Sequence to fold (534 residues):
Amino acid sequence: MLELKAVSRYFGGVRALDGLDLTVNEGEIVGLIGPNGSGKSTTVNLIAGLFPLTAGEIVFRKQALRDVPVHKRLQLGIARTFQNIRLFGQLSVWQNLWVAQNSPEDRSRRGFFSRWLGGQTRGRKEIAQLLEFSALGHKQDELAANLSFGEQRRLELARALAARPKLLLLDEPAAGMNAEEIGQLRQRIVDLRAEGITIVLIEHVMELVMGVADRIAVLNFGQKIAEGTPAQVQSDPAVKKAYLGGS
Amino acid sequence: MDFYFGLAQTVGIHTLLGLSAYIVLLTGQVSLAQAAFFAIGAYSAGMLTVLAGWHVVPALGVGSLLGAVTACAVGFPALRVKGLMLVVATLAFGEGVRLFFFNFDYQVAKGGIRVGPLGGEGFRQIRFFPEHGWTTAEVMLFIWVFVIGVMALLWWFDRSRYGAVLRSVGEDEVAAQSVGINLTAVKVSAMTVGGAIAGVGGGLYAHYTTHIEHANFNVLLATFAIAYPIVGGLRTVFGTLAAVIFVQAFLIEGLRFLGDWRNLLFGALIILAMNLRPHGLFGRHSA
Fold:
């Protein structure tokens, strides 16, 4: 479904990502782990199109993404969350989901005629479903800025789902969460996969990523140092060295 | 009574100017080009009634259209830059338009006298209202029909999804494009609507003062245009109206008895207002 071919991104002299090859198959949950500064977020930002590739190629469903602008990538079916939550704070919870309904079906449904033929009702119904899925129904009229941290994380995930993506990029969704919230997040990720959404998960919380990922790629200094099932990766000597240091 | 009608005319026209900047500010863009769109509306509507003998209503329509077209054309290159660079780019454009009118001569003889814009001397005798016997009160009502219409339109925008999209772009461009919003389309559309509003305002301004010149459309006017929505707050269109009344009726007219001290107080009061109400007179209370 998604293929990264020798993808590189340099910031000045810093090689944030250096020749990464990665394949994500339909319906998979792929974990992306590595120490701080290893290139995980850069990988997500490149797939989402936030900045251009220095070298290499990214192919999504047989389409090269190089010249596809950010908002068009969402319309192709790639949605994301941010490591540092980026909500529209002065918009209500409901409005945050409303402005994010930008899939091709959503856009055609907002046409002049289809709007009056039930298009609006369907959009509202989907927002209600998302609010229920993320347990935010009681907060729908609250400003996003006034939500608690955990609620903001849930809203950001719901906002990414508002365009019914095929591929979901989660950038440290469990950061700052307590054990109970992580358990709920894990359940949500499993539910989303059951609905057929492919997921790339960047995570520092090992119990989460080891528990849900089918396959894990480990990055260090912008390069992939290991890839395999959670069990394979955990016993890989190169991974242990990268995380624990020493020689 | 005519004094109050005249004041209401000024308030109405400045409200249109402020609202043209309001919709652009919603997307987080600070544009100093609004005075230029206002000038384009003023000159084109004035020329159509004086030189071509049009009725004022279609002339305002053309002024508005030209304001919108110019704003759209400026929007594409200008909105590629952000923040201070955008301020400088729009300022340069605004000064360019002003200097164009400084050098713009297009006079024809009508009934023995030559009428039309004459460079630095300006464009005199835009006398549609007096020639058709409109009273000050009627002109005021005419202006306010447009003010209320534009306020209603922007109020409706604000309640619609389009309004929420404008605000989302204003809050976080990266997040907005990541949820599938086309930043260029949103910003240019806001700029175009703003240009149309400024064009109408300028056309009305030309006809109620009957004499315009390049110096009316300088940087000071452009600053006022963005100051109104900033002082009034971006929560609703009424903030801009309140700010115009505060500045035009209270600060400029109400304090006239203070003479030259007024200018000093003027700045101090704006600073005070912004300190007491950092999100504008009608802004939100939450941080």
In short: The CA atoms of residues 72 and 285 of chain B lie 34 Å apart. Residues 2-217 of chain B form one domain.
